[in-house]
Amino acid sequence: MHFVTHININSWTHYIAARILSNAEKKRALGRCNSFMVETIVLIAFASILISGIIIGTPLLTSLFIGLALFVGYGLWRGYSAGELAHMALSGVKTVSHVLILFAIIGMLTATWRAAGTIPFITSWSAVLVKPSTIVVTSFLICCGMSFLCGSSFGAAATAGVACFTIGEIMGANPSILGGAILSGCFFGDRCSPMSSSAALVGNLTRTNVQENIGRMMRTATIPLVLSCIAFTILGMNGSGSSVTPDFSQAFSSIFTLSPVVLIPIAIVLVFSFAHVNVKKTMVISLLSALVICVLIQRMSILEIPSLLLFGFKTTNQSIAPMVNGGGILSMFHLACIVSVASTYSGIFNGTGLLDNLRCMVKKIAERTTPFIGVLLTSIITAIIACDQVVCIMLTAQLCDGCEGSGSALALDIENSSAVIPALVPWSTSAIGILAFVGAPSTSILFALYAAFIPAWTVVLSVYERYHPEFVESKSAQLMGLKRYDDIRLVNESMAA
Questions:
Q1: Which of 30, 59, 133, 490 is 20 to 30 A from 12 in CA distance terms?
Q2: How many angstroms separate the CA atoms of 37 and 41, rounded?
Q3: What global pTM score does this model have?
Q4: Are residues 243 and 369 in the same domain?
Q5: pLDDT digit string (tens) for 362-373?
Q6: Measuring CA to CA, which residue among 232, 223, 228, 230 is closest to residue 464?
């Protein structure tokens, strides 16, 4: 009798314990479900804010501040205090402090290059190279070179882009095709120049060396660059019209002394970059050399230097003003504000775990396909939602940090997706800004071939690598910029060993 009672008591004890555990598991599951639903609602609301802001013309910075308020509200709902959320936000800003300093240096550098006559000299020289049958491909290559030298898609568009589109229109080139070639060329250097703010941002986010990233990006871009040249050559053969080329040198000569000496600041960047000198040091030395040229060659007063560095270069000659005006620390202020506000997101995301579920989904996609495909799909979504290259890069880095086995591999993935995909989004600030600078139609986006070839070629490489693991260690792969740690399976094997 006692034995039976003992059995019954034990049975009831196990039954009650099982029910308690079952109820606890249900509560946890319900909590996870509710959390996932709220996270989904928050992210959809954020996307709606950005998209509606573009439609009604709300400044991107305003939309980002509204998004920040939304994420802070989510943090408060999760039980975090205002002080904790402020600390999270500041931790995000600290991660990009290096980039913010770099933005200021870039702003000063682009201003001095204009004032020293460096950019006008290159623009004048470029105009001599173009012909009606080659205007499209030549414009692409000239904008590639200018964007690589100045590291800015907007800077290349406002200088070489404006000149090439003006010349091309006179020669009868198709405006959409010509605009696509210029847009493509502007994104070439924006992606892989040592002067590029986006390259610096990617290096900072992935904690990788910018110069090493640039070397790999240049090699992986070889095939897309060749394909783009072939495509633009074929597309430009139908151009017809006047063969008269505007004489930019005469217009520039009224303001600048166009001596080969003005190329010294650019020569410093090229030589020092190939010598793997620190990017900041390279920029500062180039900046100092440009200031010397401004004073000694262009006869600028030393008293004008502070205004030049802060507000940028300005000329009263309206015929060349669109091609030479610009630069300065304040020209980077808006971009710095966007990066600062967007960087607070990463701190809040990390602290509250807002993107944990979405990050897991991205990682599953990457595991079932290839890591790059996971990053690319994320980039497309963030580019469409964020409408801005900087925000696209930052969100993609945040969501895809578990897709690759190393920061260098992730940096290459981001540069081959997030850095160029915005050029293909009609409402992206990057695409809109460049086309507005040069006066090209919105249909030019259909011919931004380089921006499309980069991710397409990388998809081909990543799929081939998935089925041929030994490929990443071959000489051909190394020539194309790939390394052993680009295959996460080999990285995991090394870690396991």
A1: 30
A2: 6
A3: 0.71
A4: no
A5: 888 888 888 889
A6: 223
